Amino acid sequence: MKKTLLTIATMALLATACNHKAKTEAPQLTSGIDPSYLDTTANPVEDFYRYACGGWMDANPLKPEYSRYGSFDKLAETNQEQLRGLIDSVSAAQNEKGSISDKIATLYNIGMDSVKLNQQGAEPIQELLKGIAAINSREALAAKVAELHHIGIDPFFGIMNEADPDNSKMQMAWIWQTGLGMGDRDYYLEKKNADKREKYQDLIAKEMVMAGYDKMASFAGGGNIIAKMVMDVETGLAKAQYDKLKNRDPHATLHKMTLDELKKMAPAVAFDKYFAEMGLANIKNMNVGQPEYIAEVSKVLANANMESVKAYLAWNVVNTAAAYLSDDFVQANFEFFGKTMSGQEEMRPRWKRVTSTVNGAMSEALGQLYVAKYFPPEAKERMVTLVNNLKEAFAVRIDGANWMDPETKEKAKDKLAAILVKVGYPDKWRDYSKLEINDDSYFANVLRSNRFDVDYMMSKIDKPTDRDEWQMPPQMVNAYYNPTTNEICFPAAILQPPFFNMKADDAANYGAIGVVIGHEMTHGFDDQGHEYDKDGNLNNWWKESDATNFKTNAQVLIDHFNAIKVLDEPETFANGEFCLGENIADNGGLHISYVAMQKALEKQQVNGEPMDGYTPAQRFFLAYAAVWASNIRDEEIVRLTAMDVHSLAKWRVNGTLPHITEFIEAFNVQPGNKMYLAPEKRVTLW
Ligand SMILES: [Zn+2]
In a designed cystine with 584, which of 100, 479, 512, 526 is the match (CB 3.0 to 4.6 A)? Predict the structure, then answer.
């Protein structure tokens, strides 16, 4: 539901902010264009991506552990080393038992202890598996689902807190489809994925035997039979699930109901017991994202072969646990999810995997340490200035939108002005004192951490929305817009080069971090975001003519991306409809930040002189492209095209820029060039 910028990191320090009186000489600003990124043998009007990023791509070939590696992943990699350093320094100190430092150190050490992990093997999941194998009634089956959800294992469906779409000031329970080991229904249903299904089934067979479930189950049959049972259950569920396009539609997934209505619709789920287990015994109303699917889950619980459903629950445990058990599990898990699904050749080293676990379990505690060490306080102030400049520029663009009714424009500007801006880190930090970490097993700690998080989420249900809460920790290299709180957020870790370069002049910074900010703001006005009003309620504030024009104009972008072939073998095309929100945000972000750059240059009375041979406009677009410099494997192209709402990095440049008139002019792109689109074919939105 939340929009994130995927792989975007940034530091938004405005180069012009160095204006403390001329005690020292004004620093000489660079062009911000790193020549090592470029491939000047390429022709920018034919393949701008290659021209702007070819040097970087050649110098940074894919390492075996990556399925995709870009300038933003490089930043995330540095970030991980910094986190490891913080964990190491905490571990080296004498920590009081039960202190947050002690918890960080204990979890990290137990994850790194390969001897202990390998000795324990599948032992950490035995109790859970035995509990499932012993189920002998439909009621016990339903109760087990609730127990598993409480520890963060989500067979069938998931529950979370989200805003009430009609009253965003309150949080409510949302029930959402989950429960497919391969993630998306298309993997189960599309012919082209037969090979993946076969390998997935092999994985199930292998790991269920390694876990010893074949010995516990009360039917005869080895791994292959168990795998077939699991696959049948998952395929049945996949058929009943909404597809990813429907799930992007906030109206199609809005089905508020009372507890009685829910129970009537899905009697076999035993929702009374379920909510009691979740600490929500008094719940009255909820939103069910996909009611037809939940009705199907109820049918499965009531009618399906009980041994199959038990095998499915057991597989959910094994599959969740595999990455935290002994090396044989970790390896089997990687062979499928890393190699087959993404084309990774090698696993990430253990320290990176464990750092991610610690980071996930105690993100704000690590975030607090991270900010103290790595986030310069002046960065926050400068970023806020930059965001305000972008807001002003967006208002100019809204005024100029000739497809929009004047009254609606005023409402759009009200919404823009109301956007809450978060930069760097939260004012208040989460309390981890009740989280229990000890030295029994790595996976036991993961489960306790999950339970701690589930309880935290459940505690928000039917309570007022806390608009000060952050949906992302400060050490995450990313950014987001949340439509229900109408907020944009730029964590500390994105506020650094290559997104923001303090030593570079404005043009490059507006092209990189400026576009990132504009991108997040535009999400408030994309195909989903515009359905929400300035208070975050799902409430139509557009006239019919605005909505019609928006749709007609957006279709241009859909058609343009649908025609882009992203891979020859297997032949794969971009999905213009699925990526529409992100493509609108890239398009809007570029326009808005370009206006902001022009205003900044005017203010400084800089008349756009070339630096290092590039005009400000050219530097703006080169810096934009540099953010997306990356290499990617074919398997990952296929996977991301199926799963990711963002266009692939290459097409965020070569697919997006032909629609930007300022780009066409800056590089003198002519009819017949690959980067050219005729003016009437360029999209007009924000
Ligand atoms: Zn986005």
Answer: 526
